[in-house]
Specification:
Elements (H helix, E strand, L loop, with lengths): L9 H10 L2 E6 L5 E6 L1 E4 L5 E9 L4 H7 L2 E13 L1 H4 L7 E15 L4 H13 L14 H6 L2 E16 L6 H11 L3 H9 L5
Antiparallel strand pairs: 1-2, 1-5, 3-4, 4-7, 5-6, 6-7
Length: 199
Amino acid sequence: MSGPFDDWTNDDLAALIAGHPLAWVVTRGERFRATPLPILLERDADGAPVGLIGHFGRSNPQIEAVRADPHALFLFQGPHRYISPAMAGRADWGPTWNYAVARIEAEIALDTALNDEAVARLIAAMERDRPEPWTADQLGARYDALIRHIVAFRARITHIDARFKLGQDETNTVFDTILAHLGDDPLAGWMRRMDRRER
């Protein structure tokens, strides 16, 4: 951790991915390929991030790129917004952009035996806040036909570079003025979460 924007915890990263699970999955080969996919984070017994789980559509040509080279980038983007000097309450203040992002390097292992688990876990995560969560059981006979059209994967995390640039370097007055302008914008919640300063 080298600065205020890099001062994050495993729980912060997990919350970012859980709240914004659609990641660009980027692979290399003769050319770069990228697919936006919903991704779940896996953590070990101590809470450390160790893996990512998801699935490709079976017809996605990126699968062949993964078979040739399993190294991939997973790019997660949380809430972000341009911050105008007017929002800071100071005309002599430089505009900036606040954001929460994570760049994760991982090695993908394709595994169709993981299809059922990957889909069940994704559905459970996405439906968790609904009063009556939908389950794949409701597909009935269609489930077997649909599940054959995906290739699940588990990716072992090899490096994490997350950055939460959320006003940590602002004065208390500027920080609070920006928050007041943001109101209930999701970015405001993340600014409060990552504010480590004593007040």
